[in-house]
Design brief:
Blueprint (H helix, E strand, L loop, with lengths): L6 E6 L7 H16 L2 E5 L3 H5 L3 E3 L41 H10 L4 E6 L1 H12 L3 E6 L15 H22 L2 E6 L6 H9 L4 E3 L7 H13 L5 E6 L11 E4 L7 E3 L2 H13 L3 E5 L11 H19 L5 E6 L2 E6 H4 L11 H8 L7
Helix pairs in contact: 1-9, 5-6, 7-8
The protein binds 6-O-phosphono-beta-D-fructofuranose.
């Protein structure tokens, strides 16, 4: 089916990540040079849509941004058009302002909205689709936890950043005979911890999918000590939790589609481990460093393919889908199938088995 789309808007929603600009570039350049479309950039994700803030993007606006981290459009991870807490209405009830968002797009003649974001952004995109707006999703997140795609852009860069940081911590851990506990992001999935932990040869990897037992972690570091390996590196996902226990919550942001912000497990473990083993422990939280900086070549290419395909499929008449990569092939899947689910690591994942085979403990 041929599309009647003449004008598109693009937004970047949720937490930022490396590669967003590469998608904006691919979308804008493909749309303008191949299809002569009008392109609007929505500022600050859904917040800009709610506040009716968008600007025309020219071909030149999309030049020279491929390697730049962050997003030229800005992002926001607390504004939900279907459940919006208007800051000017102190303590007023949340409201559904999605009709106003659609009006803002229509008033500019926008026929379709490309939403670059994670699961929260896709949930709202799916809700807009139900209201008749044509949308197309592009899967972004360092967490790699979007259901339906094998990979999201931003993940490779975050793993690269985390691995390089852990490599540096290795040398100082070794000099001081310490246990270094490195906390990485990832929300309820351990992808960043697994891949950076395995790539850095970390001794212990703790992920939400495999609840740990503290005594097993203690046994592993003490066993290394008794073999003359007087330091250990533990990579812990922010969502890791003890068997029968809970994740550590850093704060709750009521207005956010996912209000819980995890964080602090490395400090907790550091205290517990030093008490239980007598070894000197230090906690390092890599935090938002993992979301910053220039995208890796892999992410630049992935983001370019995703952005390009989003426009191509839209122009072929596909709508309300998420662009995905499955088993090395690019395709799309209905947003309605994806919204509300997250992709965690299967506990029989090849990299878990390989890491175990080379002596890595998962705290069980
Ligand atoms: O989803 C990306 C992510 O960086 C998570 O890994 C992390 O839990 C969360 O966002 C942090 O959110 P914020 O930027 O609101 O602190």
């Amino acid at each position: 089916m041929k599309s009647s789309v003449k004008s598109i808007a693009v937004l970047t929603g949720g937490g930022d990540c490396p590669g967003l600009n590469a998608v904006i570039r691919a979308v804008t350049k493909t749309a303008i040079s191949k299809y002569n479309l009008e392109v609007w950039g929505v500022e600050d994700g859904y917040l800009g849509l709610i506040e009716n803030r968008m600007r025309r993007l020219s071909y030149n606006d999309a030049s020279n941004i491929l390697t730049v981290g962050g997003t030229i459009l800005g992002s926001c991870n607390v504004a939900n058009p279907f459940d919006y807490a208007d800051p000017s209405q102190d303590d007023g009830p949340n409201t559904d302002v999605s009709d106003d968002c659609i009006k803002a797009l229509k008033s500019r003649g926008v026929d379709a909205l490309i939403c670059i974001g994670g699961d929260g952004t896709m949930a709202s995109a799916a809700d807009f689709a139900k209201k008749g707006l044509t949308v197309m999703g592009v899967p972004k997140t360092i967490d790699n936890d979007i259901w339906g795609t094998d990979i999201t852009f931003g993940f490779n860069t975050a793993v690269d950043t985390a691995t390089k940081a852990i490599d540096k911590l290795h040398t100082t851990a070794s000099s001081h005979h310490r246990v270094m506990i490195v906390e990485v992001m990832g929300r309820y999935a351990g992808w960043i911890a697994l891949y950076s932990g395995a790539a850095s040869g970390s001794d212990i990897i703790l992920i939400p999918e495999i609840p740990y037992k503290l005594e097993n972690i203690c046994d592993s570091v003490l066993a290394r000590s008794s073999r003359g390996r007087r330091f250990s590196i533990i990579v812990v996902a922010e969502g890791a939790k003890p068997d029968g226990g809970d994740m550590v919550i850093a704060k709750t942001l009521e207005d956010s589609p996912d209000p819980i912000r995890l964080g602090g497990i490395a400090n907790v473990l550091s205290e517990q481990l030093s008490k239980a083993t007598g070894l000197e422990c230090r906690a390092v939280n890599l935090g938002h460093v993992q979301r910053g900086g220039t995208p890796t070549p892999f992410d630049r290419s992935l983001a370019t393919c995703f952005g390009h395909l989003a426009v191509e499929l839209l122009m072929q008449g596909t709508k309300n889908h998420l662009i995905v990569q499955r088993e090395g092939r690019f395709k799309s899947a209905p947003l309605s199938e994806i919204a509300g689910k997250i992709k965690t690591i299967p506990t029989d994942h090849t990299l878990i088995n390989a890491a175990k085979a080379v002596g890595t403990s998962f705290g069980i």
